[in-house]
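Standup notes
- DV: blocked on the single-chain target, sequence here:
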Amino acid sequence: MQITFLGTSSGVPTRSRNVSSVALRLPQRAELWLFDCGEGTQHQILRSDLKISQLSRIFITHMHGDHIFGLMGLLASCGLAGNVKRVDIYGPSGLNEYLQAALRYSHTHFSYPVKVHTVHPGVIYEDDEFIVSCGLLHHRITAFGYRVAEKDRPGRFDVEKAKELQIPSGPIYGKLKRGETVTLADGRVIHGDQLCGNTEIGRKMAYCTDTIYCEGAVQLAQDADVLIHEATFAHQDADMAFQRLHSTTTMAAQTAYAAGVNRLLMTHFSPRYAPGNDIELKDLLREARAIFPKTEMAHDFMIYDVPRRREIDSKSTIHN
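- DV (later): unblocked, structure below
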């Protein structure tokens, strides 16, 4: 699981930050999932190492323009390129109507299947490897946060030990690898966990924007390896945050602390904290780290490799 930030500004783009979009690359299955799609997202993908042909799922948090204005352009380009097989889009009520109107008035036709799923709190997608769920956040309009949980996997199968026990190879090995119990022809009962290492705990990512501090975000982020959370305002501008129902740095940090996450990656920064102003982005990072030390400030094209539990303390996972 590899995260690439494609847009980290709030409301409007700046010279160095585009509006909201985060890509989740799943190398083991050659898939790319996108979270939000602000204006210019397709340009950001072209400037990155991501392959647009691998795009398969898009998750939209809410219907504000800085989170959806790039969606139609991206989908149209995917169709013209002709190398995207199918895209499933998940988001709040109104998303399908928005896309249908854009298709109708722009006379655009997709050359590949596109299906829009209107989401409700709970599990919205599941396959053999992942479970994706969503929950309500607290914003001016209906907004959802998302949680991606990789399923636990059995530990490494000890082939040499299996040979020592004279267990015949073939389908039996597959059952034992899955942790099943097998009765051999000679009557011996072999438990899969006797031949497998420790279970590999699945990685978990939560994505919460736009929102003020709320229990919905805490629940989505519970025990996550990484929480991506908006931090539009500095703590000093908390009044403005409450008025606009956006988070301050301290709200993002409090969410991470309450949820017990391993790492907080802040994004969706107001352009008001540009270099030379009274409050700068470095001050926002300092505020968050005072509450939750394992906080990083995302920037466009930053890459974060989500580590497995055994790797968390052993390697750096952020690439600038």
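- Follow-up: Confidence is low (pLDDT under 50) at residues 311-316.
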